[in-house]
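Cross-check.
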Amino acid sequence: MLPAVLTASFMTLFDFNVVNVAAPSLQHDLNAGSAALELVVGGYAFTYASGMVIGGRLGDQIGHRRMFLIGLLSFGLASLLCGIAQSPGQLIAARLLQGLTGAVMVPQVLALITRSFPAHERPKAMSWFGMTLALGGVAGQILGGILIQANLFGWNWRPIFLVNVPVSIIAFIAATRLLPQHERSARHRFDAVGAIGIAGSLGLVLAPLILGRDEGWPFWFFLIMAAAIPLFVFTLWWERRFPEPVLDLNLFRSRAFAVGLPANALWLGYFGSFSLVLTLLWQSGLHLSALQAGLAFLPLGVLFAVVSVLGRNLVARMGPKAITAGGLVVAAGLILMIVELQVKGGDITVAWLLPATGLVGIGNGFAFLALIGSVLANVSPTQAGAASGVLTTTQQFANAAGVAIFGSLFFTFLGSRTSLAAYASSTRDFAYLALICVLAAAALALRINRRQPAVTPAAPQQPVATSR
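Predicted model, tokenized:
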């Protein structure tokens, strides 16, 4: 079943990254302005992050298998609508739907892994999950560039979305045959107030962050973000009283879950923006093509994937300490990058940066599996969907927020300068901020108290002494 469910994770990560290399083609073909491009990129992230908790909870109530199949077909349909869009408005609407269907599908992946694999096999499954995420992100850059450059059938950018349609159909057929039948929870009431409150709170924060830089950060954007606080407080109040909440607050009684979530947020906030900044340095600073820039990411992605698979046993033994160890490796890569950018400046090349980005890939592969496994280690099977939804929502929210916040800071550092030296200097300043996030996540990991349930082997039968 594992390849069938991991296909969903691959597609969602692929579509998150592929539009970056397609932006110039979309602007030319659809006459899309900068605001429309921001919504094409950020709108997907918004609905994807906002719907995760709801998708996970629906999996617990309706069934993870059923929700996964519904999400898989819906994602394929939304991808088809993206591929045939004739205007920026149509493409934006289709991208919003695509993110929402991804939110229905992806929480079920971790939930199905948690419920289907025994504890001693989960590290192996999680390692393949981590490798899939790495390959999906890299493929979005590389395969997207290849598809656009090939211009299949004269369709320009459209194949980057249409390729999901046959993949979704094949994965659906495989999933119907391979996914296990789990009994769903006895709960049937849906928490509409909690769902609207969570999605609304995230939307009030994410929308201004995504659009703020292009709109010049008007004052009322900050008022919108401030309005998320009372709405979220009310939602928490409601969730404590509703008998079947969409956000199960009992999950936070586990220290591993409560401490692991902010560690995940810091890590994903840094990594999403790290990819964006490197793309800007390579394409705008070094003037590489979209395909060349995608290939420059290949060593990072390959090392991430290799370490995810080969290091799974070590990660399983170390537990949360693997996050700290991986964080130190990433920190070493960031420090090396800072030194290289300081020394070379305007003479920097991709070859100079590959050792630093390689260390980042190794550290990510080592720590990412532990980040996920530590949070979900003590979650009961009946809460697997809810916990996976909260985790993936936190990760995607942090990813989108990190891109918006660190991207804005990067452009602030850059100012009106366009030289390679300016891009190198701004990348170096960003690396200092990324270093702080990584070290903070590593420090939090030391506070995770991961206690695996003890498995007591059956005692051998002893002969019973009898007296005559």
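The domain at 2-180+193-445 is CATH 1.20.1250.20 (Growth Hormone; Chain: A;). The chain has a mean pLDDT of 80. Passed to J.P. for a second look.
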